[in-house]
């Protein structure tokens, strides 16, 4: 999934390399490509109707993101994820959003509360899809209010671990973020940026635990023998 925020929608327009990267992440997430498996570059290029060049570009990007390992003269192989790696990923999100919410209050002032309050109310509705959109808008509003290009760069560099519609794949996360972002708003109302940052960090850590449970249920942590002769 290519998005500026975890759980965001797929970009409508993707380069061939981005399309290939999204496709490979999906194959890994769906268990088609298991840890240790060779990434079949020719097959992926044929499936997508593209040349091998954007597939190679995708694999270079995916290696930087920790999805694959490229071995010279051997190809690219799926890197095994483990629960600590997933937890680290979401705790890093919590740190970045915590930093952003501090800067948002500092640089935007109390008006940030007025922007976020309607979004928290929308999260409480009965429609999970609408709640998910409100959650993503909350994150975007905080990042925009922080007025920091560096925060945006860091978030763009963090690839999503869950391809596609995050809240459809991890429905448990909706309730976690409803509660957690409500706590963030309460701290902002009280003029407490440290409390808001701590609430953000706790929320994203809990989301990480939900993703760990999802990956365990899908068998994505199962080591299994690596078949490198495929």
How would you describe the overall organization of this protein?
This protein has 230 residues and is mainly alpha-helical. It folds into two domains: 16-78, Arc Repressor Mutant, subunit A (Orthogonal Bundle); 83-217, GntR ligand-binding domain-like (Four Helix Bundle (Hemerythrin (Met), subunit A), Up-down Bundle), CATH 1.20.120.530. Helix content is 65%, strand content 3%. It has ten helices and two strands; from the N terminus they run H-H-H-E-E-H-H-H-H-H-H-H. The chain has helices at residues 16-29, 41-48, 52-64, 83-108, 111-123, 128-146, 149-157, 166-169, 172-189, 193-217, and strands spanning 68-71, 75-78. It has a two-stranded antiparallel ribbon with strand order 1-2. A hairpin with a 3-residue loop joins strand 1 and strand 2. Residues 7-12 and 224-230 have low confidence and may be disordered.
Task: Tell me the layout of helices and strands.
Blueprint (H helix, E strand, L loop, with lengths): L15 H14 L11 H8 L3 H13 L3 E4 L3 E4 L4 H26 L2 H13 L4 H19 L2 H9 L8 H4 L2 H18 L3 H25 L13
Antiparallel strand pairs: 1-2
List key phrases describing it.
230 residues; 3% strand; Four Helix Bundle (Hemerythrin (Met), subunit A); 2 domains; two-stranded antiparallel ribbon; 10 helices; mainly alpha
Approximate strand percentage:
under 5%
Question: What is the total tally of β strands?
Answer: 2
> Class of the largest domain, according to the CATH hierarchy?
Mainly Alpha
**Topology order in helix (H) and strand (E) letters:** HHHEEHHHHHHH
Helicity range of the residues?
55-70%
Instruction: Sum up the overall morphology in one term.
Output: elongated
CATH topology of the largest domain: Four Helix Bundle (Hemerythrin (Met), subunit A)
Biggest sheet, strands in spatial order?
Answer: 1-2
């Amino acid at each position: 999934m290519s998005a500026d925020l975890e759980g965001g929608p797929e970009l409508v327009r993707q380069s061939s390399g981005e399309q290939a990267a999204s496709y490979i992440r999906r194959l890994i997430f769906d268990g088609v490509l298991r840890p240790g498996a060779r990434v079949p570059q020719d097959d992926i290029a044929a499936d997508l109707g593209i040349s091998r060049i954007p597939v190679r570009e995708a694999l270079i990007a995916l290696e930087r993101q920790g999805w694959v390992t490229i071995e010279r003269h051997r190809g690219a192989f799926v890197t095994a994820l483990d629960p600590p790696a997933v937890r680290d990923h979401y705790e890093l999100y919590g740190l970045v959003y915590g930093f952003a919410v501090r800067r948002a209050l500092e640089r935007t002032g109390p008006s940030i509360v007025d922007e976020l309050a309607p979004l928290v109310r929308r999260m409480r509705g009965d429609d999970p899809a609408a709640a998910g959109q409100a959650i993503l808008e909350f994150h975007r509003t905080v990042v925009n209010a922080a007025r920091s290009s560096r925060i945006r760069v860091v978030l763009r560099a963090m690839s999503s671990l869950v391809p596609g519609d995050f809240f459809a794949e991890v429905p448990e996360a909706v309730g976690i973020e409803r509660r957690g972002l409500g706590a963030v708003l309460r701290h902002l109302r009280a003029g407490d940026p440290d409390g808001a940052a701590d609430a953000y960090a706790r929320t994203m850590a809990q989301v990480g635990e939900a993703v760990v449970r999802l990956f365990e249920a899908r068998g994505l942590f199962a080591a299994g023998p690596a078949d490198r002769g495929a």
